Amino acid sequence: MSAPRKRLEVVGKSRRRVDGRAKVLGQLRFADDLQLPRMLHAKLLRSPQPHAVIESIDVQRARAHPGVHLVLTGKDFPVPFGIMPVSQDEYPLAPERVRYVGDPVAAVIARDEQTAGEALELIEVKYRALPTIATPEEALAHPETRIHDYGESGNIHRNQAYEFGDVDEALAHSDHVFDDVFFYEGNTHLPIEQQASLAAIDGEGKLLLSSSTQNPHYLHRQLARVLQMPASQIRVIACSNGGGFGGKCDPGGHEFVVCKAALLLGRPVKIGLTRQEVFYVHRGRHPVLMRLRTGVSQDGRLTAMHLQTLLDGGAYGSHGPAATFYSGVLTPVTYELPRFKFEACRVFTNKPACGPKRGHGTPQPRFGQEIQLDKIAEKLALDPAELRLGMVTRPGSLTASWLRVGTTGLAECIRKVVEMSGWKDKHRKLPAGRGVGIACSTYMCGAGVSIYWNKMPHSGVQLLVDRSGQVTVFCGSTEIGQGSDDVLAAIVAEVLGVDTGVVRCVTGDTAITPVDLGSYSSRVTIMMGNAAVQAAERMREQFAGAVAEQLGTTPERVVFSQGRVFAAEDPGRGMSFAEAVAITESKLGTLSAVGSYTPPKPPGKYKGGGVGPSPAYSFSACVVEVEVDEKTGWIHVPKIWIAHDIGRAINPVLARGQVIGSVYMGLGEALMEEQAFRRLPPKLSGALVHRIPSMLDYKSLTALDMPEVEVALIEDPDPNCPFGAKEVGQGPLLPVMPAVANAIYDAVGVRIDELPITPDKVLAALELKAAGKPPRIGPERFPEVPYPKPMFVLPPWEGGDGNESKMPRPLGVAAS
Amino acid sequence: MSGTARIERRRNVQLRLSVNGEDTEVSFAPYKTLLELLREDLGLTGTKHGCELGECGACAVLIDGEPQLSCLKLAIECEGRAVETIEGLARGNALHPLQAAFADHGGSQCGYCTPGVIMTAKALLEREPNPSRDRIREATAGNLCRCTGYQQIVDAIEHAASELRGEAK
After folding, report:
1. Alpha carbon B165 to chain centroid distance?
2. Which residue of B has its CA nearest to A707?
3. Hey, are the CB atoms on B111 and A24 less than 8 Å from each other?
4. Is the model's pLDDT at A1 over the cut of 50?
5. Cα–chain-centroid distance for residue A442?
6. Nearest-CA distance B91 → chain A (Å)
7. pLDDT of residue A684
8. How many CB atoms lie within 10 A of CB B96?
9. C-alpha triplet A294, A605, A331: angle, nearest 5°
10. Long-range contacts of A563-571 (CB under 8 A, 24+ apart)
């Protein structure tokens, strides 16, 4: 049933977010704010060795320490975990082997944190050191020092190759081929809230875990697996997260530890990680070395691209299999690319595991591609903005890799930032030392497939309404600061014609909310939102059917607006929303409605084609202005302009906040953020240690460093999205880093092909320039990586059907 | 040190101080910081922690009107001092103008750094009722925020400042 059209009353209006009041009062309870009677405290002993066999652990003295209730070791956790079914390679406490400095090996549960900390020092662990692997190159060169006994071979965790059309042939026939190598250093999420968890046994004997997690549903499944308990006996509550950015997507060893301890002791057990531990848990941006060979025609059209990536995965699988795909699969979505070859390899090293960070695997190749386009534009004497405008993908088109591009506002984004920034008067026209750079990007609105294979909905929403006129919405979605509760309330309020003030959100609780897969892959607004629209429309249908007669109209003509329910033809004759609910409740009994959402099937049918498809893609374009001091290499960013194709902004003040916050995080990655390691000298064990596990040394932008950002929201509603709303939480980060690099080139004529772009690199490049050498800092070569034979898939325009097919030219025969 | 001595050292001490305008007497373990005292012994969990090393600013409170990092302050040093936390800011059930502005202008996203930033801003506006955007950025540079990119925090403080100046008339 389609309701009479009305103007949007909630969606699109800037409002105080529904959880805003609790936050500014300090009333919102984060996980570490929870306290329970008889609560005990846990602390973890972490390995000081980057790679070693645990020969023995003696916990006798710790166990005897006054105030200690329990000591756990790897023996207590025989079952491994891992967020992805193909990488269950991690134990809550390492049983036999440690693989990075910070790997947890034992836990003490005591009456307070102080006592637990004292007891940790009484645990004696004998390690036998093993050779360490510091870099992907070392990992490939030393397969005999095997970090895990699973994976492709040696230290290769994932290795894959796809070819969509004959790329070598297309490159051979291109007017120009650009061949560049880029490096993107790893960095970490640095949420201000450190992970915390509280486990307790409820009155019925069931386990309750309240935790700072982005993905309570996946955590729920993993707890059942590791603790070997039925999932029905476990309840996970995702507390509001004090920032996530992907860092709270993986289950953490500490979560299993407090659950196990609560089950053994029958008392609540809490843990709060220290900042140093948060650096060790990590799961942040993969360092990626990449090579892009790109063919271009003289008039500025792409002919083909061969992208190779090498990911430094750190010590465990984490989301690595997905990250490996994402280091390439979204590359063809922005610009028309007739043929595409993508080879990716993720290796293990003895460092904290990398995982998903805002943009998950896609910022790295985007960084390379958007700098390379700047080089292409210069070579072809084209304006970089015009070059991009001339080749944006068309709405509804397919990529060579069979991704369906839905709506796209990329051209509009480019035009908008060009106009806002005064690009045409600035690019190649500013005085020496000042410059502007442009870059674009795309991001998915939710992964098309779940992390584990199933045919069930990705999001479910349930509504309860009663005669009080209150609307309670239940959804497993997780508020991590991005405003998902506000989106949920706004969508329900819009459909039912009420104010968000009468909507109560109950979210992120596996015992009482329908499953939502979690706050990752920018999926929540779209998937939860579509489920919420369906539930609210079903609810509205019940009301309309029940009250139509009394209003003297038909159900289709009943309008829900501003807390009133009335007939379209006679708005004066109506009733309050609460009255309409009471009438409906009298006729139908207790009122409830559910909605669910499953993404559409992707057009690509080849194996692996499930990663990359999304119900919609957001697009962004960004211009960065820089001032570079040629004496010191110091980079000052006075202003950033960004346009983001959001489809429709549900709450513009929040949407703008997501865009500016993304720009902030991207600028930090561009200029300073790095999760870097160093090897101690041999006399100090030669161990691989974290260079900077503290906020003072891990540089991030402060309020003083952050420029003003001018934001344009491009609103062209997408039919696959609730009220047309696409994602905004991740996409706007992506164009910032390459735009900075391109601006620096415009300012001082040096290419910095690696991140972060620090003053010392700029100075070194300026020295090369002064010496008449190529003014470039970046990786010199791409190593030999034993990629597998690519799976060949014909692009849609070459007669393909989305399945794997035979390469038209036998391998080994040179392209003519 | 023997285990017994450690427990002895942990015997509670008494402290009297003013918390959000109320005289408060509390018995607590002497090694605790003001942050721990507030959160663990007084139940005032509105004050957050992000590092407990003085790096992030999440734990900022006012001590005798001065913004201070409560994670670096031993509670025992606060005898007779006046401590203000986020819980003491609202006027009855009505939000303080800073709180309202943060809620309305996007100054608070995840909300975790928010109490510390608001307390820092309160001290600023009491001293300088009409600060420039640059001055606001300078005054809050010790409060790290990973969500907002700071711009909407600056917007919120500007709005609150203007609201507070209006009230003073």
Report:
1. 22
2. B151
3. yes
4. no
5. 13
6. 11
7. 64
8. 20
9. 25
10. A563/A497, A563/A498, A563/A499, A563/A502, A564/A497, A565/A497, A568/A4
CA distance A676 to A356: 17
For A346-368, what is each residue's pLDDT tens digit?
999 999 999 999 999 999 999 99
Please tell me the distance in Å from B79's CA to the nearest CA on chain A: 23
In a mutational test of the A interface, the residue from B108, B146, B153, B155 whose CB has the highest number of chain A CBs within 10 Å is B146
Listed in sequence order, the residues at least 6 apart from A386 whose beta carbon sits closer than 8 Å to its beta carbon are none
Q: DSSP assignment of A427-452, as one string?
A: TTTSPTTEEEEEEEEEEESS-SS-SS
Mean pLDDT along residues A520-541 = 98
Residue B59, token pair as written in the block? 């734990």
Do residues A753 and A181 touch, judged by C-beta distance below 8 A? yes
Alpha carbon distance A371, A745 (integer Å): 10
The CATH number of domain A39-130+192-243+248-281, selected from 1.10.10.10, 3.40.190.10, 3.20.20.370, 3.90.1170.50: 3.90.1170.50
CATH 3.40.1190.10 fits A160-187+284-382+408-448+606-777, yes or no: no
Chain A residue at shortest CA distance from B111:
A23
Domains and CATH numbers, chain B: 3-88 (3.10.20.30), 97-168 (1.10.150.120)
Question: What angle do the packed helices B151-168 and B97-104 form, to 10 degrees?
Answer: 140
Whether the ω angle into residue A615 lies within 30 degrees of 0, i.e. cis, is no
CA pair distance A468, A502, nearest whole angstrom: 10
Whether B82 shows a pLDDT value over 80: the answer reads yes
The verdict on a CB contact (< 8 Å) between A114 and B10 is yes
Q: Which residues pair with A640 in a beta bridge?
A: A624, A709
Residue position matching structure tokens 């932008």: A701
